[in-house]
Description:
mainly beta, Lipocalin, two-stranded antiparallel ribbon, 1 helix, 12 strands, globular, disordered C terminus
Amino acid sequence: MEQATESSGVRDFDFWMGSWEQQNRRRKEWLADCDEWIEFESTSVAWPILDGLGNADELRTDFAGGFVGMSFRFFDLETSMWSIYWADSRRTGLLDPPVVGSFASGVGIFEGGDTFNGQPIRVRYTWSRTDTEWPRWEQAFSPDRGKSWETNWIMDATRVGEAAMAAAAGPDRLVAGRAR
């Protein structure tokens, strides 16, 4: 995606602010003609940053030995495009290359280049059902510069109350009224 839609704006991710429980489905193997899926649960907390010009979220799961991940999203006022970055505790010190895109009719599509198993790929994040209490995020990889896509991770989220998330996080993880 190279051009923003007219409807994309700095408030696109307002739906995501708060606390969430997620049901995840990931392909067991990526870009390997694998149709076996693994299911697991996770939680997330999202909050605005940079006076609303961006936002961050923290994902926690026990999947694959447990890990913590963070997304950072930044809105470019000049281009009306979002850049989304990912980092997690499985690969410390690394920030994935951004995926860039925008929203149209409540669906956000964000793409960028990366590598997988030493080979160049395209990565696509898709946000849908953003006008509901059950938004969906999907990740897909393309080994052929976007001619074909394999969805490898689907996350269906359900909003939870701040009190429930704080209790799950524990008292040492509560900061300024939100779990961290």
